[in-house]
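Hi Y.,

Following your request, here is the sequence exactly as I used it, all 277 residues.
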Amino acid sequence: MLAPLEGYSDSVLRTLCFRHGADLTFTEMAHVESFLKNSRLALEKIAVRDMTPVQIQLLTGRENELERFLQGFTSFPGFEGFNLNLCCPSPDVIGRGKGAAMIKRAAKTQRLVSLIHGHGHAVSLKMRLGTNAHERELKVYLNAIRGVDADFFVVHAKTAVQSSAESEDYSVFPECVNAAGGRSIIANGGIDSPEKVEALKEMSVGGVMIGRAALSNPAIFDSLKNQLGFNKPPKPVPTIPMLKKEYAELYTNLHGSERLRDNFFRVVGKKVSLANY
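Below is the corresponding structure, written out as tokens. Let me know if you'd prefer a different format.
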């Protein structure tokens, strides 16, 4: 899966990664309250211009706002459901009881999930191990998994206060898988090699979500699938110059964002360091 990447994940990048092996993509994080205000910027974040499989990532903590949004929402080809953000590490977002602050609020999260299911849509969660080391030690993330009836869970194996330089704790995944009771746990955080994917597969995760490494190389999905034997026969993997050309063509055809295009060309082919992904 391609992670929701703030400042990058428009239809152009999502489609580029889907063409090269990503099975599911996600929009940028968008505030539900912004949709209710008809914010042009928020609506652009979830703009879909082709049939690439996508989940819309929502940031919310209020049932009434989510219900109003869902009442006016119309599904579209390629729509695979919603993803609730329990991951954003922004102190401002956490201070308002949203993002990573929701990890310890399983009952409220379940009410949000029930609203989405009630409208007939699939819903997943993207979550961290807590806002800080204390919540990590209390294993609040396991309560969030056990107490919420999401279709699958994406677990970023860090707390909200950890920096991009700190290592993810993949040791949590077996207990997350057990807590999920048969629903899929998707591993997220620092995944960039077949060795890491193989190790996670042995922990019985249902898949992996890739962010930073996909910005550096949007064809990493097929590259990993080739190396792990998932693509039979192996698929051709384009070079970075070829990917840049393909991105430029998609940008024209899908009427992409100039700002996001510039962001992408600044990082593609380079080592990317982003705290959130």
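The beta strands are 25-26, 30-31, 54-59, 79-86, 123-127, 152-156, 184-188, 207-209.

Thanks again,
Q.
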